[in-house]
Amino acid sequence: MCVTIVFTITTVRCVLEGMFFMSFGQNLKNLRCAKLPPLTQTDLANAIGVTQRKISFLETGASEPSLKDIAALCRYFNVSADFLLGLPRNMDYPEQL
Length: 97
Known about the structure:
This protein is α+β, with helices and mostly antiparallel strands.
């Protein structure tokens, strides 16, 4: 199985056998909107200690998340970083890099 991980300024995507997985920004927006009642960008920003503008930039791909952002979002939504970054569940990781 051939796995290529492509990191860009705007998105983190995994291409696995020709299938595209959702970007970080799209996953973040989906998680935010799936809350009941749906969270505004401002609500989420206040909950994790960033600005609404930062959430907007993350969702649109205008900004990359820091490790601190990823950790805070994973804790808030109770999801893994792999899920948030859009990596497939069945991804084979190499033994050594």
